[in-house]
Design a protein that fits this description.
- The protein is of the alpha/beta class.
- It is built from 15 helices and 16 strands.
- It has helices spanning 2-17, 25-39, 47-50, 53-61, 65-71, 76-85, 103-112, 130-137, 177-186, 239-242, 329-338, 356-364, 387-393, 409-417, 433-441, and strands at 91-93, 119-122, 145-154, 167-176, 192-198, 215-221, 248-252, 259-261, 273-282, 293-301, 318-322, 345-349, 373-375, 399-401, 425-427, 445-447.
- Helix 8 (130-137) links the parallel strand 2 (119-122) and strand 3 (145-154).
- The longest helix has 16 residues, at 2-17.
- It comes from Coccidioides posadasii (strain RMSCC 757 / Silveira) (Valley fever fungus).
Length: 450
């Protein structure tokens, strides 16, 4: 410090002695300022004391758990802010764990947050410990999201009272129907549920009131050779009163799905989205005409359909048919005619009864004018000849999936050069690199992934 003081005095004396216009004066002033800063350092201010708490909270939201742990080690103030404002202490996410998580570690986390956990994703944890972990989480009154994904199959899941839980996702655990409804009754505020359910078990006589439930996704579990009947969950006479506000219903089977009798949901006027995946069906679907989203994937009807299961809808905004073998040209035509003004997303991928010769007259008639997202991947016979029809008759198209077809780089060039439609993304399989680069040069994404 003494050397800096002596240097400061020397620079000060030099400035007094030399002329004001001397070329060395600026350099001496800069050196004098440096020595002054070393003698009297500027007052340092903690940036977090200057920023508003709202900004500090926004900064902490972008930190992961590891960064948050480093953050709270800086000072006592940072420890206080990190403990109170960071969302990491409200989110118990074990999916990022590199090693199996012990019960003591979960207990320490819950105690560290004073029971303030709002979201919990259980993974990398021994299935035998899950009941005790759920008991710990039942002490967190603000818990609204719970996802259970065990490394091994869980034989059973305990029923715990989670009064404020809104989202429940249970994977790798098959729930008998009575246990499923017991869990639902212990969480009266549930809005979204996703679970494996053993459809061969019985439904209890009395069901809980689930007026808040908006989305239900059931993954089938069944013994070999079992016939899934219409009473999967929806044959109970009181079910409409139990879930009066259900908006989304998704059924998903295993790769070797059973035959299932089609269910009747015409009374569910609130239902907006419906999905059938990997299921063999007996009979027609009976769904409310107010449906806005319909997805049939890997579905087969037996015996072959005599009617039109998609002709009843007039408000569809999105229709997805993937590996849906009974979708015929007549069904597609009625779907487009009835939903000509509302339908914007259409997928007819790998439907064996459809070919380009069936699509061409429908496109020419203007039935595709409202479509913004079109997926015709795997449709038989699709080649470059369909491109002019798309350009002239689909002015609103933005995303086009042409993978697994016989189109070439010519289609890419024609779509890129066209004034309308204003294509944003094209999905293709095998085209030349020059065609892909040409699209990218015009700010159009050309990708091999949907």
């Amino acid at each position: 410090m003494q050397k800096f003081e002596e240097a400061h005095k020397l620079y000060f004396y030099s400035l007094r002695m030399i002329d004001e216009h001397a070329p060395e004066r600026k350099q001496i002033e800069a050196l004098m300022l440096k020595t002054k800063k070393r003698i009297i350092p500027p007052k340092r201010v903690d940036p977090l004391t200057v920023l508003a708490p709202e900004l500090v909270s926004m900064i902490l939201e972008h930190l992961d758990l590891q960064s948050t742990l480093r953050f709270i080690q800086v000072s006592k103030l940072w420890l206080k802010l990190g403990s109170g404002l960071s969302r990491q202490w409200k989110n118990l996410n074990l999916t990022v764990a590199k090693r199996p998580v012990s019960l003591s570690a979960v207990r320490a986390f819950v105690c560290r947050t004073n029971g303030g956990v709002k979201e919990a994703s259980l993974a990398r944890i021994n299935p035998t410990v899950i009941p005790k972990v759920l008991e710990l989480l039942s002490r967190c009154p603000d818990l609204n999201y719970l996802k259970v994904t065990a490394e091994q199959k869980i034989d059973s899941l305990p029923v715990v009272n989670l009064k404020n839980l809104k989202t429940l996702i249970v994977l790798k655990c098959t729930l008998p129907r009575d246990k499923f409804w017991d869990i639902m009754s212990s969480c009266p505020r549930l809005e979204r549920v996703e679970a494996f359910v053993d459809v061969s078990s019985d439904t209890p006589d009395s069901l809980p009131q689930l007026s808040n439930l908006r989305c239900l996704r059931i993954l089938f579990s069944h013994p070999p050779g079992y016939l899934v009947t219409g009473n999967i969950l929806f044959q109970h006479p009181e079910l409409k009163e139990v879930m009066p506000n259900l908006e989304e219903l998704h059924f998903e089977g295993a790769p070797s799905s059973p035959w299932a009798q089609a269910i009747s949901l015409s009374d569910y006027s609130s239902l907006k989205k419906f999905t059938y995946m990997r299921i063999y069906l007996h009979g027609l679907l009976v769904l409310p005409v107010t449906l806005e989203y319909l997805r049939l994937e890997h579905c087969t009807f037996a015996p072959p359909l005599q009617g039109n299961p998609v002709g009843q809808f007039s408000r569809l905004k999105s229709a997805i048919f993937q590996f849906c073998y009974p979708l015929s040209p007549d069904m597609l035509e009625s779907l487009l005619v009835n939903n000509e003004r509302t339908l914007t997303h259409l997928t007819i991928s790998w439907c064996s009864d459809l070919a380009q010769e069936h699509l061409e007259p429908l496109i020419t008639r203007g039935l595709f004018r409202s479509i913004t997202h079109l997926d015709i991947s795997g449709v038989i016979g699709v080649n470059d000849a369909i491109t002019p029809l798309i350009i002239n008759n689909m002015p609103n198209l933005k995303v086009l999936n042409l993978s697994a077809t016989r189109i070439s780089g010519l289609t890419i060039k024609q779509l890129v050069d066209a004034e309308t439609p204003k294509i944003e993304k094209i999905v293709v399989d095998t085209v030349s690199r020059d065609a892909i680069q040409y699209g990218l040069s015009r700010n159009i994404q050309v990708s091999q992934l949907p």
